[in-house]
Amino acid sequence: MTRHSRLRRLGRAGALGATLALALTACFGSSQGGANDNPNADVTITFWHGWSAPNEVKAIQDNIDAFEKEHPNIHVKAVSAITDDKINQALRAGGPNAPDVVSSFSTDNVGAFCSSGAFVDLTPFLEKSGIDPKKVFPPAQATYTQFEGNQCALPLLSDAYGLYYNKDMFKAAGIAGPPKTLSEFDADAVKLTKESGDTYSQLGFMPLYHGYESALSHIAAQWSPTYFTPDGKSNAADDPGLKAAYEWQKALVGKLGGFDKLDTFRTTFADEFSDNNPFMIGKVAMAIDGEWRGGMIDDSDSKVNYGVAPFPVPDDMAAQYGKGYITGTIVGIASTSSKQNAAWEFVKFMTTDTDAVVNFANGIHNVASTKAALASPNLDKDPTTQAFIKIASNPYSNTTPASPNGGAYQVTLQNLGYAYEKGKQTDLQAGLDDAAQQIDTDIAQSQ
Amino acid sequence: MTAAALDPGLRRRRRRERLRNLAFLSPWLLGTGLFFLYPLVTTAWLSFTKYDGFVSPVWDGLGNWKFVFQDYPFFWPALRNTLWFVVIVVTTRIVVGLGLGMLVISVKRGSSALRTIFYAPYLAPPVAATLAFVFLLNPGTGPVNTILGRLGLPQPGWFNDPTWSKPSLTLLALWGVGDLMVIFMAALLDVPNELYEAAALDGAGAIRRFRHITLPHLRPILLFAAITGVIVMMQYYTEPLVAGQVASGQIGGSGQQTEPGYPDGSTLTLPQLVYNLGFQRFDFGAACVIALILFTLSMVFAAFLMRRGSGFLAGED
Which of B81, B88, B85 is nearest to B273 (CA)? Predict the structure, then answer.
């Protein structure tokens, strides 16, 4: 081969490489939107959401109709039953068919949406409209919709967690009312447990982390843990509340018969969202669950005579009784949208207009997500709904904060819980140290 | 003779031939380029970048590779599980598929009914089949353990026990072995009967007939079953994911993350990590590392099997 032909081949290879690099780069950009649109122009915006049940879609449409009446120049095209995977694809791709306004049932992706810029920072819009999120939204809702000061989402209704208890079983066991502290709760759980050989005919409470909603973060909220330090590092190894939550659960597992016996009993549970949910058929006397369980019980053939109360708090935090774990649906504006001003008008209406929030909350039996709506006399008067409204309004209620890699830190903490509850991990502090290190490594990898 | 020495007419003719050949090859070239080479090159490139799916990728050298091999706690258990499934499930499926094929062609009556019974489960959608197995093998309420209990036999924890979860998935894979059974049946019926008759006259027993007549004829089919089986197991995603999620009782959500590989990571496979990293952690770079590892492993297994297989086939010639 001559020098000339070698050079020619090298040139061809270089050209091919450059073309390939250009082609690859072209595939990973996303079309850019902006907030330069005229909000008074006649436009149609696209709104993607995950609701699909007829009553949910109707409630959304009612709000859209109310919005269009107030803003006749902005038309909203709603697309229902959208999953997070589809949202992520659309946010990456952009284009004329991509959504302008996006809502997601999970709060865990807020960190990625904010830090990547997939959702626009709403701070300039909020300032322009004179809205202070800290004044409008309860603390938990304000927390899970922002990441490192970037308020890229707003809450669109909430879910709150509380204690469901079987009134008949309480009466039979001579328990006057729902427990307020965890020591009362432990005593009641033991009193309500009826063993039958190797199993139970009735269990006071299923404490295992796989016991449906008895997840670590739902329970740990009663200690108001601080998951991250101000500089974004994991605080798991140093947070006394988190450690106390693991220890309380482990001790309760022991009091109720030990891991193996409870886990064997757990495998007899039917599907969580079926009519045979263990609380609904009287297998367990108490359960931690969200506001939706009340509606499910009422709509089912279950004869369970139930009451709802806030989940008990640690004895040394009795003054904070009434709080609980809060999560919810979030909504944001896609950075690829070219109609961001019009989109903001819609997001502002859906998330901050008290009538809109109240009507939507009543329509789909969720908890309202603004302070004003939570105090509204027009909210559903049903006692279960009212109990969860109080939990959501409690200033000590809290949530799991956003992280740049979704819920990876929760998986790490949960896995420690699984190992600790079954006795595979005996040194809790060593486990927490390792978990904190793993969380930091995972976050560093994602940045 | 150099190209310059060729007369212009011949050169034109050769160029036309080359273009015509390229035109004939173009559908394949286009398909392979677009759907194999381009994704492969992109995956390799992304594995050296930080890419969250939203912002353009940024070169990161070996950062993702170091993270996956050194700092990602799920990688090594998932690799071990994947290799377990490749070796055990592929082997048992071939053995059972061949056994069932031989059984069906050997029975005098009811062969069609048996063929239908063994093949039908293969048509069940993977999610439905997995849900049914989790229900049947539920340690607390499932009918299998109820029967075992009545017989006084031990009742395993099946999908809820890390020791039994992989064997449970193997049982599920064997239940749907009808595809291999049909292929083996066709191959078995293709073996000339005279060979068996001649061997029988020479005094060869059933085992010797199987070893010296049946197996050599089946080698190409065995090779096919092994290679496709390895590829399927390298992509093993739906069944372990559904089984783990349903048996764990958790559907996931805010504050309640789905635990990958329940119980104790025993059903975690490499394809689940690709999804977990790419679409739950928004770390496409690290997800691409796992995808490349899967690709390499598939190639190594396929090359090894084809080398062994071609040796057998050459021996036949």
Answer: B81
Work out how many CB contacts closer than 8 A connect A with B.
127
Distance CA B212, CA A104 (A): 63
Q: What is the pTM of this model?
A: 0.85
- The dihedrals phi and psi of B201, each to the nearest 5 degrees, come to -65, -35
B53–A92: do the CB atoms touch at under 8 Å? yes
**Which residue does chain A place closest to B244, by CA atoms?**
A210
Instruction: Find all residues with CB under 8 Å of A344, minimum gap 6, and list them.
Output: A35, A39, A122, A125, A129, A333
Domain ranges of chain B: 3-64, 74-316
Q: Residue A107, CB half-sphere, CA atoms under 13 Å: how many?
A: 29
Look at the block and give the residue holding tokens 């998330």. Answer: A351
Indicate whether this complex's ipTM tops 0.90. Answer: no
**The domain made up of A161-324+403-446 is a member of CATH 3.40.190.10:** yes
Q: What integer pLDDT is reported at residue A25 of this predicted model?
A: 42
Looking at domain B74-316, its CATH architecture is Orthogonal Bundle (1.10)
User: ∠A115-B286-B130 over CA atoms, to 5°?
Assistant: 105
Q: What is the pLDDT of residues A95-143, one digit of tens each?
A: 778 899 999 988 988 998 898 888 999 999 999 999 999 999 999 999 9
Mutation for testing the B interface, residue in A216, A445, A447 having most B CBs under 10 Å: A445
Distance CA A410, CA A248 (A): 18
Q: Which helix (H) or strand (E) holds A154?
A: strand A154-166
Output the CATH code of domain A43-159+326-393. Answer: 3.40.190.10
pLDDT tens string B180-218: 999 999 999 999 999 999 999 999 999 999 999 999 999
Task: Decide if A43-159+326-393 and A161-324+403-446 have a common fold.
Answer: yes
Domain boundaries, chain A: 43-159+326-393, 161-324+403-446
Residue B198 is which amino acid?
Answer: A
Q: Within an 8 Å CB–CB cutoff, is residue B69 touching chain A? A: no
Q: Which of B256, B283, B290 to mutate to test the interface with A (most CBs of A within 10 A)?
A: B256
